[in-house]
Each structure stands twice: as structure tokens, then as C-alpha cells.
Design brief:
The chain is 25% helix and 23% strand. It has 3 helices and 4 strands, in the order βααβββα. The chain has a single domain, classed as Glutaredoxin. It has 102 residues and is an alpha+beta fold. Strands 2-1-3-4 form a 4-stranded mixed beta sheet. The relative contact order is 0.22.
Length: 102
């Protein structure tokens, strides 16, 4: 298996009991998955997109992490935000506007 160049993780607020209850889920994180995957593919980016358990930064949600770059983004709440983040990724840069990590 060829591993993808990037792994995009979208917080879906899963808790130990398995219930998605947190801020990211309530703010529509799962509705963005298909758009992220399709937009990345349209741009020729080699990515895998998946959801995660709670990433413990609920106040910043919805949260998206891009590995292996370790870019953490908050407020990922629209297609426009995703487009800006993917634009930066194509340039090999972090999208500082939505970055929540040092």
C-alpha cells in the first residue's frame, strides 16, 4: 500500500462512550469531510481524510489537523475556510489565519 502524502484529521468529538457530543460535531465537522476529500483530489493533493475522537480544543472547533506537517486549524466551519487552508497546503505553507498551534 502506498501511503498518502498527507493525512487530514477532522475532530468529530467522539468520547470514550462512543458518542459524538462535543463542539466540533455540533458545529458540523462531519459535513465537511466529503468536501475536503473532493477538493483535495481536484487539486491533485494526495490525502486521506478521516475523523478523530475529541482533540480537546473544543473552544476552537471545528478543528482540523494536517499530518505530517502537524498543522492544527480551528474555526474550520465553511468551504471558504477549507479552500484557504488547502491553498496554503498546495504552497507548502501553514495557513496562519486559522492556525491554533505554535
Amino acid at each position: 500500500m502506498k501511503k498518502p502524502q498527507y493525512l487530514i484529521l477532522v475532530c468529530n468529538s467522539y468520547r470514550v462512550a462512543g458518542d459524538a457530543q462535543g463542539a466540533c460535531n455540533k458545529k458540523g465537522a462531519t459535513t465537511m469531510l466529503q468536501y475536503i476529500a473532493e477538493e483535495a483530489s481536484d487539486r491533485g493533493l494526495d490525502v486521506a481524510v478521516t475523523t478523530t475522537a475529541c482533540l480537546n480544543v473544543c473552544s476552537q472547533g471545528p478543528v482540523m489537523v494536517i499530518q505530517p506537517n502537524n498543522y492544527w486549524y480551528g474555526g474550520v466551519s465553511s468551504e471558504e475556510v477549507i479552500d484557504e487552508i488547502l491553498d496554503a497546503l498546495e504552497e507548502g505553507e501553514c495557513c496562519e489565519k486559522y492556525s491554533i498551534a505554535d
